[in-house]
Amino acid sequence: MSRELRAAPPKAKSLVITVWGDAIAPHGGKAWLSALIELLAPFGISERLARTSVYRLTQEGWLVAHSKGRRSEYRLTPEGLQRFEEAHQLIYAPPIHDWDGSWDLVAAPPGELSTLQRSTLRRELGWQGFGELTPHVMLRPACAATRDTAGLLRTLALDRRVTLVRAREADSAGASFRPLSSRVRALWDLPRIALEYRAFSRRFGPLVDALSGNASHDLHGEQCFAVRTLLIHAFRRVSLHDPHLPRQLLPDRWPGAAAYDLCANLYRLSQAGAEAHLASTLGKHGAMLAPAESRFYARFGGIAGGASDPPSPARRP
Questions:
Q1: pLDDT tens per residue, the chain (317 residues)?
Q2: What CATH architecture applies to the domain 2-78?
Q3: Domain with CATH 1.10.10.10 in the chain
Q4: Strands laid side by side in the 137-141 sheet
Q5: CATH of domain 103-168
Q6: pTM passes above 0.90
């Protein structure tokens, strides 16, 4: 993985988010700063950068510190937990297949919002997979796996200023209305996202052989943790920009499904060693690894392990 780190070194704060969301959040969401610094060191993140990144995430409302003597333990804030909850579905859940043809629309008529409010609304709805139909209307397919838009609008204190509608297109006999599905390419930059998925598959595809069969026994826990972390770090960057449209609206041979399958395969192959390294590192800093929440083992449709299967000690060469 050293070649991967040289080719695409991760930014410290973004990597902290990945490590926290992928590894620490499922185990209670708290860790000593000293343990986090050790987990980040193999990625080329210095102690100073790790401390600065955690401080910034605290200032931004992701984490809160609890001092015990000269040591600091960090935990997710309720707001930070909510952000991880929203990202969890997009990263680990299977692609969307079922869709009844209905759409969610958010309308913000002229004069209702300030320039700052409109910019914030556009950005936050974009993270939820909405595309901009007009300067005042954003929409997305209404799927079971999509996130809570009503809750977002309440959080932004815009629920009394905008209109949220779930609607279906008119089916008038003899009419030839242009369907919303024909506007997909104008609403979302699918070619760019497809390129990013293909680049992800090219980058991580060769690791399947390295982690399969007997070859996996040559990797110790720290290497498995590095593989799993860089895997999710890269996949998260693509997945969170993907509107996650239902299959009916995607181009033929959409590469997102293949990238998801590759990510799932590598995650399963590396997770036992990664969990063992996480347990070992936290233990060295005086903390037991809390049992993972059940949803952790449901990632990517199911990974090995469970509450009754604690991680084995990390193997060292």
A1: 566 666 677 889 999 999 999 999 999 999 999 999 999 999 999 999 999 999 999 999 999 999 888 889 999 998 888 888 888 888 998 887 788 899 999 999 898 899 999 999 999 999 889 999 999 999 999 985 567 899 889 989 999 999 999 999 887 655 678 888 899 999 999 999 999 999 999 999 988 877 776 544 557 889 999 999 999 999 999 998 999 999 999 999 999 999 999 999 999 999 999 999 999 999 999 888 899 998 899 999 888 754 434 444 433 33
A2: Orthogonal Bundle (1.10)
A3: 2-78
A4: 131-134, 137-141, 103-107, 163-167
A5: 3.30.70
A6: no
